[in-house]
Structures are given as structure tokens and as C-alpha cells.
Amino acid sequence: MYDKTVEEIAKALGANVEKGLTREKVRQNQEKFGKNALKIKSKSLFKKIVEPFLDVFTVMLIVAGVLGFVQGNTLDVILVAVIIAVDAGISYVQQFSTDRILGALRNTIPQKVAVLREGKKIQIDATDLVVGDVIYLYEGEKIPTDCRLLAESGLTINESILTGETEAVRKKVGALHGDKKIYEQSNMLFSGTFVASGSATGLVVAVGNNTEYGRIAKLVAGSATISPIQQKTAKFVSKIAIAVVIVAVLALILAIWRGIETVEALRFALALTVSAVPEGLPITISIILAFGMKRMAKKRALVTNMRAIETIGAVNVIATDKTGTLTENRLSVQGFWRIGDKKYQGLSVKKHLATTGVKDFYAATLMAAAPSDLASDPLDVAMLNFAEKISVLPKYELVKNYPFEQSLAASGNLWEATDDSLTLFVKGAPEGILAHCNLKHTDYDQCLMKIGEFGSQGFRVIAIASEKIAKVKQNSERFTFSNRLTFIG
User: Fold this and answer.
1) Using an 8 Å Cβ cutoff, are 473 and 450 in contact?
2) What pTM does this model have?
3) Residue 243, CB-side half-sphere exposure with 13 Å CA sphere
4) Is the pLDDT of residue 118 over 50?
5) Arithmetic mean of pLDDT, 391-401
6) How many Cα atoms within 13 Å fall on the side-chain side of residue 75?
7) pLDDT of 323
């Protein structure tokens, strides 16, 4: 898709980049291309049932049980059968409970996406997207499908999940020529990657398993590894089996040589074989691993395969993208501070709205955050939820929204007052904002101390500032600010 024009792609997919898809076209494309959900081939019910009996030790127990049955030793057969049943039961219970919890977790946090349908911009679940949809993406969002880029503003994408490169990649509109690898397709947005900065409009060209991420997921789904404990157990069982067979054969030969009847000698050799099998070892291992899973569950760690417990014990470092995986990526404002505030301010709105200047702080927060129709980033949503507690807004009109600028580590909004004056409200990394503020040395040091205090408590710290603007450059998508910012808080 990267080597075709937008018009060619839209025509091939039956898409309308100006008005979006109609309901009928959505239905048709969903039937043709499927839903936007990964369908990974799971184990069949039959495989799940027989899997506990395919273990090397279990097979050895079954052989021992058969030999006991041939020998007519009912007690041994019953004992072996009970051990196998208990071992399988533990596996079934753990597998069922883990699958149930994981299934619930997968359905907990659906991703919402802004999409153009029948000329209207609406929010839908990412799983309801279809090929041909026009979607809007903003800073911090996970890209839900493979898309061809239609428009962008300061757009950079984190494609580390596909390429392994952590540095954000700049994207641009326009067809490319020649054979391009994934990391060279600068006009494509891929499922599973993240918007590092800026905003974009894209045309969905692939969903579900047909995306680049879906193809990787299908390859990984078929892989199966043998845990260290399984390898060690298999070696141990092999050695036992060889030793038992050798001893049993020698015992049979010696018994016959001493004049014992062949049937009685064979019965003795079988009894020796059964008695040499450590029937209690498999269930002992299963119980130990089950207790390990239970202890990990108490610490909110789910294990799908009991044998993986021993594998986890060999892990030294775990690297994970926690946002949206281990956390829900939902932020909320926990407090605010301005120069002159003696201590950490809480969120008792009624109390603090009566304090001089606090209403101005709430208003500035509202004006620095992205407008509600563009606020998809959790930070903007949190700031809006906090700032909308004020009842009266300043009489300003939004002139322009500037998405996150990587080089400045900030974003902002340009507002026009009733007297036609322009004010830029910005939010971003506090060190960067403070470096452009006209602060006294004592105030600057006080700000740094408060940033360190908030940071030590695990808070994400955002600075807010403003600047009077004389004029705006026409058609300027990116924004800059001078060294005359007024620090707000």
C-alpha cells in the first residue's frame, strides 16, 4: 500500500476519505475482511484434556499401571490410577482458573478510537474498525490497525514492537517508490505501535490477523518450548527406565537360571519393575508447582503453565511496556502547586476555589490541555477532568491547538481574548518549561525543590505556563515559545 496514491487505495477499498464509510459499507467490509481482532489458534478441547497424560513421567506411570494389571496387583493399579488422576486434576484446575482470569482481563480495557463515519466524527471500539475507515490518532495512543497516512502534524511513531528500535520515527504523507522494508515505509502506520508525538489521520488498510502485528502473533502462537524442569525430568526418567529394564532382565535371567518357573520369574521381574517406578514424584512436583502458582497469584501474577514456574525462577530481568498492559493508562490529578504555596495542595475544590488565584490556576490548566474533542491522551483527559470543576471559564476563543512537540517536550493552545490579544498556554516537562520562564533565582530553586518532592512520591509532574503572542505565523503547524514564559504552576 505504501507505493500507491491515496486515491488508488481508496478506490480499491471502496473508501471515502472525505465522509468516511456508510453503515452498509461497514457491514460489507467487515464480512469481507473480518473484525479487527487477533484470532490466534488455541489448543483444542481434546488436546487440553490429553495434555496432562503426555508427560514423560505420566507415561511411565501408565506403563507401570499396565504391568501391575498384567501381574494382577490390583492395589498397585488403583494407586497409580489415583496418582495420575490427581496430577491431571491439578493441571485442569490451574489451567481453567488462569484462562478464566486472563479472559476477563482481555475484556476489561477496550480501546476507543475516533473514526469518520457518514461525515461525522465518532468514538467506537477499536475492534469495530473495518478496512476503509478513516481514523484520527493523537499523542500517546496505540495504533489499532495498519493504516495509510492521510495527514499528520508533527507526527512521530514508536515502532519498537516491530523493529526493535526505540527511537521514534518521523512519518510523512505521500507515495513511496521501490521495494521498501517495514522500517522504511514512512507513509504507513502499523498496528501495535504508538504515537510518540503529534497527531495523524489514517486510512485503514488491514485489520486483525492481516496486519503486520497479526502476522507476527500467528508465528509466535505456534511456538512451544520445553521448560528446564521438563528437560531434567525427561533425562531422569530415561535413566530410571534404562536401569529398571536392565535390572528386570537380569533378575528374570537369574530367576530362570536358579530353576524358578518362567511364569513366576516373569511375575517377579514385573513386580520389580513396578516397585522401581517413583509413583509419588509426579504428584509431588505438581503440588509444589501448584503452590508456587498460588503464591504468585496472591502477588497478582498469573501463570498459564505450571511448568513455567521453574522457568521463571531462572529470570533475572523482565522488560515490559507497562502502560495498557500492567496498568490501565488512566491518570488523575493528585495535587497542584504554585509559587508562594507553602505546602502541597490537595483537591478540596470548594476550599481552594475560595483561595486567591486558584480559579486562575484551574482556568490555565483547562486552557493548556487539549480541547475536549481532541483530548484522547490520558494526560489531557486527567487535566480536563480536574479543571472542569470550575464553574466560570475565561472569555477566550481557541485559535489553534499545537500537539506535543518532541524537541520542546511540550504542547499547547493559542487563545484569543475579547480584546483580540493572543495568549499561548503551554504544558510539558517542568525542566524544559522552567528554562524558558522569567523567574527569580529563589523562585526557580523553589520550583526545582517541589519537582523533586513530587517526583520522589512517584507523581508525573507537568508544568503550566503562558506567553502573550504578538502574531501567529500563517499555516504554522508547529509552535515555539520564547524565553519570556510566565510560570503558572
Assistant:
1) no
2) 0.50
3) 9
4) yes
5) 74
6) 2
7) 61
Which helix (H) or strand (E) segment holds residue 398: the answer is strand 396-405
CA distances from 478 to 142, 406, 407, 427 (A): 22, 10, 11, 15
Burial, 351: exposed, middle or buried (Cβ in 10 Å; 0-12, 13-18, 19+)?
A: exposed
Q: What's the pLDDT score for residue 349?
A: 47
CA dist 484 and 467 (Å) reads: 7
Q: For residue 134, give every residue at least 6 positions away whose Cβ sits within 8 Å of its Cβ, in sequence order, or none.
A: 15, 16, 17, 20, 21, 115, 116, 150, 201, 202, 203, 204
Residue tagged 476555589 (cell numbers): 353
Amino acid letter for position 398: L
Alpha helix stretches (DSSP H) within 112-261: 160-163, 212-221, 228-257
Take residue 378 and report the three cell numbers written for it.
490520558
- Report residue 32 as a C-alpha cell: 469481507
91, 306 contact by CB (below 8 A) = yes
Which range, of 138-142, 250-254, 318-322, 449-453, averages the lowest pLDDT? 318-322
Confidence check: pLDDT of 408 > 70 = yes
In terms of Cβ atoms closer than 10 Å to its own Cβ (0-12, 13-18, 19+), residue 486 is middle
The secondary structure element, H or E, covering residue 425 is strand 422-428
Pairs from 474-480 (Cβ < 8 Å, separation ≥ 24): 477/153, 477/154, 477/402, 478/153, 478/154, 478/402, 478/405, 479/400, 479/402, 479/405, 479/412, 479/414, 479/424, 480/408
In the structure grid, which three cell numbers stand for residue 87, read together?
496430577
What is the rounded CA–CA span in Å between residue 69 and residue 61? 12
- Please, is 317 exposed, middle or buried when counting C-beta atoms within 10 Å of its C-beta (0-12, 13-18, 19+)? exposed
Is 300 exposed, middle or buried, given 0-12, 13-18 or 19+ CB atoms closer than 10 A?
exposed
Q: What is the mean pLDDT of residues 317-332?
A: 70
Assign 196 to helix, strand or coil.
Answer: strand
> Mean pLDDT, the chain, as a whole number?
79
Length of the chain: 489
Q: Are 136 and 115 in contact (CB under 8 A)?
A: yes
Cell of 346: 490537595
- Give the CA angle between residues 422, 426, 428 to the nearest 5°: 170
Give the residue numbers annotated as catalytic, written as ranges: 321
How far CA 147 is from CA of 363, 376, 389, in Å, comes to 37, 19, 38
pLDDT of res. 277 = 67
36-92 pLDDT, tens digit each: 887 766 667 777 788 777 766 677 777 777 777 876 777 777 877 887 788 778 777
